[in-house]
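One example given next:
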Amino acid sequence: MTLNLLIVDDDALVRAGLRAVLGSEPDFEVIGEAGDGKEAIDQAAELSPDLVLMDIRMPKMDGLEATRTIVESGGPRVLILTTFELDEYVYEAMRVGASGFMLKRSSPEDLVTAVRIAASGDSLVLPEAMRRMVEQYAESGAQSAQIRKDIARLTSREQDVLKHVAQGLSNVEIADQLFVSRETVKSHVTSILMKLDVRDRTQAVIAAYESGFVHAGPG
C-alpha cells in the first residue's frame, strides 16, 4: 500500500531534501508540495494525501492555522516539522489535531520512521520529546469540564489503556503490559478517541494531562 505525502515548507531546498529522502522509500509517494499554509490547505483538499508534513513558521499563513483548518475539515493526518524540540506553536498544533512532530535535524532514517508512525496512528511520534513538551506547556485543568467528565466515563480498562498511551507506549507494548491482544488494545484506543471526541492518540494524551487525569513528571 502506497503512502501519499504532501510536503509543506517555505524553503524550497528543505522541500527538495524531504522529497529526496521520502521519495526513495518504495511505499512512499510525494504527490505535492506547498510553500505556505494557504497552499497547504488547497493542496490537501485537491490531492487528498494520507499525511501532510507541515512546517510551523511560514509566510501568508503559518503551519498552526493550516493544521487547524485541515483537521477541522476532516483532512489527512499532519506531522509537524520543527527546528526546536520545545516550541509552544508546535504544542498548540498538536492540541488542534496534528499527530505529532519531528525535528528537521533528524536523520533520514528517523524521519521515515516518524512518517510511518504518524500515518499508522498506533504509537506516538517521539514519545519522550512529546512528554517533555507536555511538561513544558500543558496547563493542568485547562481542558473543559466536559473532557474531565468524558474521561471519568471511560471503563476502568480504557483508563488503564489511556495511562499507558500517555506514557508513550505503542499498541503492541500496551498489549504486552496488559496481557491482551493488539486488536483488543486497538479497540480500546478507538473507543477512547470516540468517547473523548478527539481525533488522534496525541490529542488524547494532551487531554489526559491537561484534565489532570495524568500528571507531568517522572513515572
In short: The CA atoms of residues 95 and 206 lie 7 Å apart. DSSP finds eleven helices and five strands in the chain.
